[in-house]
């Protein structure tokens, strides 16, 4: 009987062949894994030796403690460097203080030997000039009180002088702003009164009309012209004066660099003056006297614009105002020229 051809024999042989193949493949895989491991270890050892590290460092790398140790070492190194730098700085400051003390003593001895002394006025003057130069170089604008040399002489200026000027007043001033061609900002409105300066909404903004003091929060001016007094006629003069001074104070608080001009009232026509018990030239003259007094006491500049517009009789010529009060557009230039020839800086 031929056992080689029996099913049992054939099956056993195939099983044996498979096992041999598995064993051979496992052996090859094991060899490959060992080779890779040895290559990695060899590379690590070479890298460690090339950088001066020991087998202990390699062990630390393998168990994850090497990085932690390096961080600790670096921290200690930085602390030692900082300590050394602080000690060096302290030593340098001590040496500098000793040198300055020595220099001061020598300077004092020299002053005593020469019998001289520094002039404090000269020192202060030089110091002030130096400070001003340094501030200018740094772009620092020191506060300059506009009333330091009050009163200044009037002089002539060009229209650009009014670029940063603010005009506050009634309908007469409103018309001047519309027809004079003079630059500047006008917080003026029909019916504006001094008594309502802090509540009357006259300035247009994106949020609607607001009182003048609210609007001043968003602008900066170096000249302020106040023209009020006609609409307030018939009231109490003492209240007018106190409210006017209050307005000046609040404007200066808001705009401390501004020169304040007190604008005198323009006269009315003779016809208007003769027919109106309140708005007449007698009362205009009295009010202007009051405004002159306020200007002088508050360090402001009074503007007698009416003198440039009045006729020989002191009244506004009839042809210059259709209603006897408001100046016609073609005569605004006379008013403008007066302001341009009565300015201070």
* CATH T-level topology of the domain at 159-340: Rossmann fold
Number of helices: 11
Task: Give the CA-based shape.
Answer: elongated
CATH top level of the domain at 159-340 is Alpha Beta
Description:
This protein has about 350 residues and is an alpha/beta fold. Among the domains are: about 10-65; about 160-340, 3-Layer(aba) Sandwich (Rossmann fold), CATH 3.40.50.1110. The chain has eleven helices and seven strands. The strands form two sheets. The protein has a five-stranded parallel β-sheet, with helices on both faces. Helix 5 links the parallel strand 1 (about 165-170) and strand 2 (about 185-190). Helix 7 (about 235-255) packs across helix 9 (about 280-300).
Give a quick rundown of the structure:
This protein has 345 residues and is of the alpha/beta class.
Write the layout of secondary structure elements.
Elements (H helix, E strand, L loop, with lengths): L6 H44 L4 H9 L2 H49 L5 H18 L27 E5 L1 H9 L5 E4 L14 E3 L2 E3 L1 H4 L7 E5 L9 H18 L4 E5 L6 H6 L5 H18 L2 E3 L2 H4 L22 H9 L5
List its salient traits.
single chain; 345 residues; alpha/beta; Rossmann fold; 5-stranded parallel β-sheet; two-stranded antiparallel sheet; 11 helices; 54% helix
